[in-house]
Structure formats: structure tokens, C-alpha cells
Design a protein that fits this description.
CATH architecture of the largest domain: Sandwich
Strand content: over 45%
Structural class: mainly beta
CATH class of the largest domain: Mainly Beta
Number of strands: 17
Strand order of the largest sheet: 3-2-5-6
Shape: elongated
Distance between the termini: 64 Å
CATH topology of the largest domain: Immunoglobulin-like
Radius of gyration: 28 Å
């Protein structure tokens, strides 16, 4: 960012000859976006930052120069990535017009993280793929740091009341929980800083392609919600300089022990589909729960069963 950028183009007639000394009308349009996890606001609308005219040379080539600078409305702490769209229109001496559009991406960092994660982690689905790309989507050499962090969660079933939390709390935690065993967590019970979540797994690697990382998930891992946090730098840089680091954070569930519910809740289920059929395990974290299971086939009820505790 902050550098001058030169984009070259050329004009050719339908028959393949160069269009020389022709007028070129161009427009440079800028937009930017943030990583979704960093900000609830993802990006902005397109903005024309430069427009004008130039001409092709004796080889039919023309150049467009512009300054790749930060948008004053963009927040630098979110490390925005800018997209520049260059539109050019070439008109020859006969009045015939050719148009073309190209795009380029520019950022404070020259790389981005590529990742593929499963819908849900289990002891069998225990891998993810990561890599480093440049801003044009090509894989490059880079260093990655992959972490799994356990999200804090309630140890009891929560039945939402639909009411806002009281501004002032008169009951201590023990009395409150004994009186309202299924109530939501109070504000002072909720940890909002994800960086304080304990690190369960950590691996550093160097790669120039999409690389598989295997997580040593066993049934002893706690079921529940986790953060997958990935950091990356270009080869030759280190993670100590935060200006060189790009990162990504994704929330994923992990169901390690299928004999227990995913998290404390009234009803949860885990299903596996095969060519032969489907197997569903249903869980509850409460006593005295009555359930009715209905199965539909081709929009018709194939069976219904009521289960008693």
C-alpha cells in the first residue's frame, strides 16, 4: 500500500492487428473488505478513485498509473484488503470500440490464509487443510501456526427465558444457580475474550501448498465448541512482528465422545448416513425428558416412536 501501480494493456482489432494511436478511456474503481471474524462490518461499496484518457503507442500498448493508497474510511487495525477494478475502453480511428476489465488485490500484507475445515470435528473427522496464498490466489511459501482453543461453555442445560438480564445482581452465584438451575449465564460468568481460551492443540509448519494437519482427537477430549485459530507469515518473517502476521479464527464444534451430548442441552443428536441406511444417536442432559421421534420418507411419515426416560 502507498505505492504507485502501473497496469498495462493493448488494443487489437478483430483481425488481430494492433490498434495504434487510439484513444483509451479508463476508470479505476476501489473497494475493500475485512476478515469476517475481525469485524461485523465486512466491506464497503465501490468507489471511483481515478478516471481519464490516454492513447495507445505504435505497438497498440497503453499504461494506466494510479496510487494504491488506503481508504480514509477503512480501519487499519482490521487489516483491510483492497480490490481495484480497472475498466478500459479503446476507440480506433474508425470509431470502433473495444472494452476490457481487469482486477487486482492489494493489502498491507501480501498473503492470505487458505483453509479447509470439516463441518464438525470427531475422532474420525480429525483433519484440516491449511496453506498460504498471495492476494491473487496463488500458493506461496509461508509459515503457519495452527491452534485449537476450547471455548468456555455452561456446565448445565440452559432454557432461555427471553428476558433481558438484570442490571444489578443481588443473589450470589451459588444461591442464583440453586434457585434457577436452568437460567442463562450472567454477564460476569461469560468470558468474552477468546484469547483467554485454553490452547488444546498447537502446531507450526512451513508449506508452499494446501497441507493436511491431523488433530490428535480422542474420546478424552471435551465435547463442545472450539476456536480454530491460524496465524501466517511469509517465509523469512517471524510471528513476533504483528505487522507481518495475518490470522484467521473460525468457531467449530467437536464431538469426541459420542456417548455424551455435544454440550449440555435438552436434546442433541448425531447422525451418520451410509448407502445401507442412517444411524442417529439422541442425547439429553436432563432427567425426565419424553421425546417423540418421527421419520419421513418421500414426504410421508415412515414411523413414529415415543421414548420414555
Amino acid at each position: 500500500m502507498g505505492d504507485s501501480v502501473t497496469v498495462s494493456g493493448f488494443g487489437k482489432a478483430f483481425l488481430g492487428s494492433n490498434v495504434t494511436n487510439a484513444t483509451v478511456t479508463y476508470k479505476v474503481i476501489r473497494s475493500y473488505n475485512y476478515a469476517r471474524w475481525r469485524s461485523g462490518y465486512y466491506g464497503n461499496s465501490e468507489k471511483v478513485i481515478l478516471q481519464g484518457d490516454t492513447t495507445t503507442n505504435d505497438k497498440g500498448v497503453f499504461e494506466i498509473k494510479f496510487l494504491a493508497e488506503n481508504d480514509k474510511e477503512a480501519d487499519p487495525k482490521f487489516k483491510p484488503i483492497y480490490s481495484y477494478k480497472i475498466e478500459a475502453e479503446v476507440t480506433d480511428v474508425n470509431g470502433e470500440t473495444r472494452t476490457a476489465t481487469t482486477r487486482m488485490r492489494v493489502g498491507t500484507n501480501a498473503i492470505q490464509i487458505a483453509s479447509q475445515l470439516p463441518y464438525q470435528f470427531t475422532t474420525e473427522s480429525n483433519t484440516l487443510k491449511v496453506g498460504v496464498k498471495n492476494l491473487n490466489g496463488q500458493f506461496v511459501n509461508g509459515k503457519l501456526l495452527v491452534e485449537m482453543r476450547k471455548q468456555p461453555q455452561a456446565s448445565h442445560v440452559i432454557i432461555a427465558s427471553g428476558l433481558p438480564q438484570a442490571e444489578f445482581q443481588e443473589l450470589d452465584h451459588k444461591t442464583y444457580r440453586n434457585t434457577f438451575p436452568y437460567a442463562e449465564l450472567r454477564k460476569d460468568e461469560i468470558e468474552t475474550d477468546w484469547k483467554k481460551a485454553p490452547i488444546i492443540f498447537r502446531k507450526e509448519l512451513t508449506t508452499d501448498s494446501l497441507t493436511t494437519v491431523e488433530l490428535p482427537i480422542t474420546e478424552n477430549w471435551d465435547n463442545g465448541a472450539y476456536y480454530v485459530y491460524i496465524r501466517a507469515v511469509e517465509l523469512g518473517q517471524n510471528f513476533d512482528n504483528e505487522d507481518d502476521v495475518i490470522d484467521s479464527r473460525v468457531e467449530k464444534s467437536l464431538w469426541a465422545n459420542l456417548d455424551l451430548p455435544l454440550k449440555p442441552e435438552l436434546i442433541s443428536s448425531y447422525g451418520k448416513f451410509t448407502k445401507e441406511g442412517a444411524v442417529f444417536n439422541m442425547y439429553t442432559s436432563m432427567d425426565g425428558v419424553y421425546t417423540t421421534l418421527s421419520v419421513w420418507t418421500d414426504q410421508e411419515i415412515g414411523g413414529r416412536k415415543t421414548n420414555f426416560p
